[in-house]
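Both lines are retained for reference:
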Amino acid sequence: MNVARSTRVLYLLTDEISRVLVRGQLGHLVEQGFDVTVATRLSQPVGASSAASVPASADGWDGGVTVEHLPFVREPSPLADLRALGATIGLIRRIRPAIVNASTPKAGLLGMLAAGLCR
């Protein structure tokens, strides 16, 4: 049995500009059979939902990756951070990843808290 084929991975980044930090990693995981989703604050989120899905494209994301919008903000903001935490919990419950990788400080704090709460 190929473990990768049954494994969903969620990468969390505070802002889409941070995609340079994971360039190549995501594509490699997809090539190995992992189901990869990236959640980040997108400059132009799609739809009214706080976690709308958009397809990965030639704008810097590796192919085969699903990209989701989350309302992360870089500055400390208790209300915005609580909203982002709630949206992250909702996303984790919806896609049910086996692995969560949070690659930036704010996404790391909120993402690991959300992942821990969702077990």
The longest helix spans residues 78-95. The beta strands are 8-15, 35-41, 53-55, 66-69, 99-102.
